[in-house]
Automatic annotation (TrEMBL):
The lineage of its organism: Bacteria, Pseudomonadati, Pseudomonadota, Alphaproteobacteria, Rhodospirillales. This is (2Fe-2S)-binding domain-containing protein. It comes from Oceanibaculum indicum P24. InterPro entries: 2Fe-2S-bd (IPR002888), 2Fe-2S-bd_dom_sf (IPR036884), 2Fe-2S_ferredoxin-like_sf (IPR036010), 2Fe-2S_ferredoxin-type (IPR001041), 2Fe2S_fd_BS (IPR006058), Beta-grasp_dom_sf (IPR012675), CO_DH_gsu (IPR010419), Diverse_Oxidoreductases (IPR051452). PROSITE patterns: 2FE2S_FER_1 (PS00197), 2FE2S_FER_2 (PS51085). Signal peptide: none annotated. It comes from the Bacteria. Residues 260-284 are annotated as: Disordered. The keyword Iron applies.
Amino acid sequence: MTAHPIELTVNGRKVSGQAEPRTHLADFLRGELGLTGTHLGCEQGVCGACTVLVDGMPQRSCLTFAVSCNGDDIRTVEGFDGDAVMAELREAFAAHHALQCGYCTPGMLVTARDIVTRLGDVDEETIRRELSGNICRCTGYVGIVGAIRQVAKGRQPQPQNWSFEARAETAAASVAVESAPVAPAAAPMDFSTSGDGFSVLTQQVTVPAPADQVWAALGDIRRMAACLPGASVDTVEGGRVTGSLTVSFGPIKASFAGEGEVARDDSSRTGTVKGRGRDAKGGSSAAGEIAYTVLAEGEGTRIDVTVRYKLTGPLAQFGRSALVTDFARRMTETFAANLTAMLTGGEAQAPAKAELNLASLIWQVLRDRLRRLFGG
Ligand code: FES
Ligand code: FES
């Protein structure tokens, strides 16, 4: 396979090198740059040992292709020498006997620093939930949690905000809705986290149909669910709905059964959908809220969407990566494409996918990133 030139900023230093399209970031950091502080445990995104910061966000370097990080800012555990929070964490880990073999420690420290800076003074339950994507096989978690709690005490959350450029990938709209019309280009998506542990995504989509029509369609929750891959509605009683959402990610498959409340305000054309669900087999839980505003824009309609969500359990490890924001953007586009098809061609043209396949969607995201890099 052909190697491609890439340039990264690693621990504050510009570096360049060659990577094959399938080379993972962890292998590039360890093999090409000699930064062996990043450990590889499971190599399939489960243990968290390989966690590094990519553009300020913790990310699994065993699941990230090096070429997809071209131009990104990477920080590994070796890159925190002058960092006051990391210095405190290192001391606290030692004082609380939070490491034995130390294999998990690089990923633990990177995640711990993210918890402390993002959330400030957090309680033990939150720390345990936030750490659910990092596995330690030696110590149990009492020392690790105690160390993080100590460093977090009295701290204020630091503002975190990352913007992802809109990408001109109209082909992306075909993901999982191959026969649907091309969705309009999505506006930039903002990703941030709130003090209560929720991740927040905001995005705008435009639909080529009049605002009245879009507003009316959004009021029919069953038709809306048909536009969202993997979603189905079982009952609707007033503003209460029950239903399910099925997702699969390689070996992990989750079928969230849950309930929610729907509210709408005709005068401001704003609406909210709040819901929570649990995957009885896998043990993951999800809670979230979608708030939307429908605005006439020329002959079409702009929908401003804010999604707040919190995942716990095995799926939490995928909760805050750049890949997930790409994925969420793709989901919004898919929804917009299906909505457009429904409004312009009737429901039969809005294909509802039986299941939301994260692996397939993430592959599409990676493929598009590679295309952008190499013009393939
Ligand atoms: S090595 Fe990356 S998550 Fe385990
Ligand atoms: S200290 Fe050994 S795996 Fe965590």
